[in-house]
Amino acid sequence: MRVVLLGPPGAGKGTQAQIIAAKVGVPAISTGDIFRANVSGQTELGRKAKTYMDAGDLVPDEITVAMVKDRLAEPDAKAGFLLDGFPRTIAQAEQLRESLAELGHRLDCVLELVVDQEELVRRLSGRRMLVDGQMVQRDDDKPETVRHRLEVYREQTAPVAGFYEGEGLLSRIDAIGEVEEVTARALAACGADDTGQPTSD
Ligand code: ADP
To answer: Which of 2, 33, 58, 183 is the most exposed place for a label (fewest CB within 10 A)?
Structure first.
């Protein structure tokens, strides 16, 4: 199964990506995680991405697309994947469609996690992650940067949902509620049951 998970910062993409991917049996590929790993590893890619990330801006498409292409070429992604945080612009969505088409593949479903703005701000300001045994706030979860990331989402990424709607691939998922409820809604929208197996119909 080839799945794209869309949704604003704070919608719970990372959490759902891990659970859904494990159930379906495909790797969860998060561009945000790959960038963060490169920043902490102080790689060339991390150095290029850091300034954009700290400002809450998108990393330029050419850098991001090349990175995703490389990742999708790895053996574990051959039979399927779940993309979290990519595509985030129409240009990225078009490039993804092209790269998949070259391999004779296409996406099976695109899920948009929908959460209202107030809830997003509330979730993001309280969010912490575990680093070296300590709970810390992500640099880009500071209130001013959060506001800017939500703006970037509205302007650049929300149109990606429209792109996939036009392709007949989009399902909008209510992402408020228990984690398991949201997972069940997402799996159902991709034609799978609660265990990730395809529903026969
Ligand atoms: P969130 O969904 O909470 O905003 P992510 O972990 O997905 O966080 O992304 C963090 C940052 O990494 C983004 O603000 C952006 O700078 C960069 N990034 C991640 N994915 C992409 C992408 N597809 N295109 C451009 N930049 C990206």
So the answer is: 33
In tens, the pLDDT along 133-149 reads 999 988 888 888 888 99
Ligand 1 atom with least separation from CA of 86: 23
Second-level CATH architecture of 2-189: 3-Layer(aba) Sandwich (3.40)
Cα of 88 vs centre of ligand 1, distance in Å, is 8
Residue pLDDT, tens place only, 61-70 = 999 999 999 9
Write out the DSSP string of 12-80.
Answer: SHHHHHHHHHHHHTS-EEEHHHHHHHHHHTT-HHHHHHHHHHHHTPPPPHHHHHHHHHHHHTSGGGSS-
